[in-house]
Write a structure and sequence with these properties.
single chain; about 625 residues; alpha+beta; ten-stranded antiparallel beta sheet; globular
């Protein structure tokens, strides 16, 4: 029998910096526990901190774009198949029985795409599903089945080969964990959320059994499937999921950019343009913002408009500005029988007969899309993302060629709008490389930045809501911050009785994207460090802590402002983060699901997961049951 111990060491300062209330000098997982529960039956990898390179690489992959997370697991399990996942669940349960973890320490965290800070649990097990990423598309059945470690990119690549699309999110590196939490994307208005189109899944339960859940199954399976559609992370580990897929001939994508507020250039050393923007300035920006929202609500269900609001740096001879970027999408779908519901937003049907193949002139004007050129038809995937400022060679207003002086301005613009002078130089140096990433997906997925995101649903922003967003954009502590609005409404508003997902009354999912560049010294120093060296402080740590605090406060503040103003219609479960916000997590859970759904979910949780093993994501139940 293999005998060993896994050690996780942290300095006191490091532990205090991540807000732990108690000091754990060492987490021990005895070899006999691993031998009893895994032994030769586990066909995947068991990685320990002593195996520095492999262990550190696995943890870094799980952290993904959340590389500011200080959490470090005691062991990493990389399953090769679903039965390995079941063994991992037995391992976690036996560890709880033997008191390896106390009631406050989550024993297990699951990682698919690595977009959540909660993919890694401090001192527990990291179950990394990266090998369970196979995807199979069945064009005859109109479905696609993906492993629990697959990403949206994997799913869409498989469906696109067959002329189909699946209702996933828009960013290719996000994993299935976000899909079972809701799934907001470009098909939301036409086809509903991902959970509305989830027809089945294989679920590894906390007792170590594997359950195949399908619509029309046994009553207990139907109840579990209802829970998975919105709250799946609390009931088991999804080893595969099956979604409906829809025939598509392509999509038309456009881009509109407008400086809704021109700002006076900031004085050297000042907080930035926000310091010179008052209430009157914000009011001046509101008509254009309100007009864009109204135009978006009136679109038919096969059309959507995602938006980005943020500060653009000054160009040569051009002042900084509060920019609104609109990203209209016209889906070229055949949805004759899949959805025929009426949209509360604009009263338009998703029927092909009612679906225009391009934006009308009034919508183009309101959304700042050029009037003189049609949006070109092309493939649905990949979905483009347009930054606040046009790249060299692209006109900021119309998407056409720009004069040479504007190309020079776009290429040389590195001005910082940050409120934290300590981060300004690092952010400016990273903005060029970060801007390249922004053309295809959000900066959140770039290794060049740290990220902290808050997400909330709103139905009608109006003047009050847009004023909140404008003030937030103007006060962002980093030049990489922005506010993203994902368009919903349409089919999403139709209540799906067999899904636990809570909020249906919303037109936009608002994301406060706090993104900032790490101090250069730390960014370079982290690359070659592994094992315990990752826990040592560097001279840049205090600067990074300051930047993180400022950016987190900015995103939290914008989220809370919408709630206090009565504009929030619900929270998104994937946004809940008890690690960063332990004091408000329970309130956010109730805002996400509502009391009636919570009672039903909690009763099922007690029956399926009596040890509360799966609690690293957020507190459906108290820490101990």
């Amino acid at each position: 029998m293999c005998r060993f111990r896994l050690h996780v060491h942290f300095t006191v300062a490091h532990l205090l910096s991540i807000g732990l209330k108690r000091l754990f000098t060492c987490v021990l997982i005895h070899g006999d526990l691993i031998a009893d529960c895994l032994s030769s039956r586990f066909e995947g990898d068991v990685l320990r901190p002593s195996e520095s390179a492999d262990f550190s690489a696995a943890v870094a992959l799980a952290r993904g774009c959340n590389n500011c997370s200080p959490s470090k697991p005691a062991v990493v399990l990389v399953p090769s198949h679903a039965q390995d996942v079941c063994l991992a669940m037995q391992f976690a349960a036996e560890g709880v029985r033997r008191s390896v973890w106390d009631g406050d320490t989550p024993p297990l965290a699951v990682c698919g795409g690595g977009h959540s800070e909660l993919c890694v649990v401090n001192g527990g097990i990291l179950l990394h599903l990266k090998r369970l990423n196979a995807v199979a598309c069945d064009p005859r059945a109109g479905t696609v089945t993906a492993g629990g470690g697959a990403t949206f990119g994997h799913i869409m690549e498989a469906t696109t080969e067959h002329g189909l699309v699946a209702p996933t999110g828009t960013y290719p590196t996000v994993g299935v964990g976000a899909l079972i939490g809701g799934g907001v994307g470009r098909l939301t208005r036409s086809c509903g959320l991902s959970v509305d189109n989830l027809v089945g899944c294989d679920l590894a339960l906390p007792d170590g059994s594997l359950r195949s859940l399908r619509a029309g199954g046994a009553p207990e399976d139907e109840e579990l499937l209802w829970a998975v559609r919105g709250c799946g992370c609390q009931f088991g580990v999804v080893t595969s999921v099956t979604l409906r897929a829809f025939p598509v001939s392509g999509a038309r994508y456009g881009c509109g950019r407008a400086a809704v507020l021109t700002l006076a250039a900031a004085n050297e050393g000042a907080a930035g343009p926000a310091s010179s923007a008052g209430a009157d300035d914000v009011a001046a920006a509101l008509p254009a913002l309100i007009r864009a929202e109204a135009a978006a609500r009136a679109l038919p269900a096969n059309q959507s408009v995602d938006m980005v609001l943020g500060c653009a740096p000054p160009g040569v001879g051009m002042p900084p500005a509060l920019m609104l970027v609109t990203m209209p999408c016209v889906l070229l779908l055949q949805l004759a029988e899949s959805t025929g519901t009426q949209s509360d937003a604009g009263g338009a049907s998703s029927s092909p007969a009612a679906a225009a193949e391009d934006l009308g002139p009034e919508a183009r004007w309101a959304l700042n899309v050029p009037l003189d050129s049609p949006m070109p038809a092309g493939a649905y995937w990949p979905i483009p993302f347009h930054p606040l400022t046009a790249p060299p060679g692209e006109d900021a207003a119309a998407g056409g060629p720009s004069p040479p002086e504007e190309e020079e301005a776009a290429a040389s613009s590195t001005a910082s709008l940050t409120a934290s002078s300590a981060v300004a130089s690092a952010a400016a140096s990273a903005s060029a490389s970060a801007q390249e990433v922004a053309s295809t997906e959000l900066l959140q997925t770039s290794d060049a930045v740290r990220s902290y995101v808050r997400q909330i649903f709103v139905d009608d922003l109006g003047g009050a809501g847009w004023a909140i967003l404008a003030r937030a954009a103007l006060s962002a502590p980093s030049p990489l911050c922005s506010i993203v609005l994902q368009h919903g409404g349409g089919a999403c508003r139709v209540a799906c009785g067999d899904a636990s997902f809570g909020c249906r009354r919303w037109e936009y999912s608002v994301l406060f994207m706090a993104l900032w560049a790490p101090p250069q010294e730390q960014h370079e120093g982290d690359e070659g460090r592994g094992g315990e060296e990752q826990g040592r402080e560097t001279p840049a740590d205090s600067v990074d802590d300051e930047a993180r605090s400022a950016n987190m406060a900015w995103a939290d503040g914008g989220w809370q402002e919408l709630v206090r103003a009565g504009l929030a219609t619900g929270a998104y479960a994937v946004d809940i983060n008890p690690f960063r916000r332990p004091g408000t997590a329970a309130e956010e859970v109730e805002l996400a699901f509502g009391r009636e759904r919570l009672e039903r979910l909690r009763a099922l949780k007690c029956a399926v997961d009596p040890q509360n093993l799966l609690r690293s994501s957020w507190p459906l139940l108290a820490a101990t049951v």
